[in-house]
């Protein structure tokens, strides 16, 4: 079994230590309150332990024969997605630009088996829609649900709004997966109608990727080319029906012998399901206790 924690191990260990200390402090009052209180304490403690273990993301590597053999297989891949109203324009072969973006992301996931993926969205501000993870199966529904933000006005878009978030995500990835390639794929229209100041991407160690432009009129292509230069990757003018490039600038390095790059069957979802069930039981019991306390208080007043 291997682990791929969502937080640096030191941070996860510190959180675990604090929770263990808090649960230990509450043990004596629970034991003094009787058997039922002790059972509830045990249920809550088990739920917290399960969530901590789930955060460590345990899993079993898939057989080596199915594992990727190139350095790209263990790459960190960052999808930077424009979710402003520009992405809702229906000029991508009669479909919204966002439909083309979703199709291209799906194709890129297929083209990089065993890689880790992150999704960073932006309009006027950035957001991490999917933290870096090798769980491509769970990522698919997230990609299918990508749509333009409601009310994200095109004149307020910062085409480089995700620059700082991307930079820190890449720094974190470099610490967790040293030696792995970092690929950046940017999907957008270049914010051609924007009236706000535009930022710049200032990131290091981009080993490959592309900047994809989806506007049929090419109004924002110049800004997209500037972003491509800042990232050090090619600009690609996307057109319906064309095969999606898969990172022509990716580093041709030797395979990275990194267990974290292996394809794995992960079990965090099962742990979180059990923990959720225990937490729901505790919530139901707490609601029941609250109702009884209110009923008793009303009887005392009357």
UniProtKB/TrEMBL annotation:
Keywords: Membrane, Transmembrane, Transmembrane helix. Coiled coil: none annotated. The chain crosses the membrane at residues 6-25, 37-56, 267-285. PROSITE patterns: TAT. The keyword Transmembrane applies. This is VWFA domain-containing protein. It comes from Mycolicibacterium psychrotolerans.
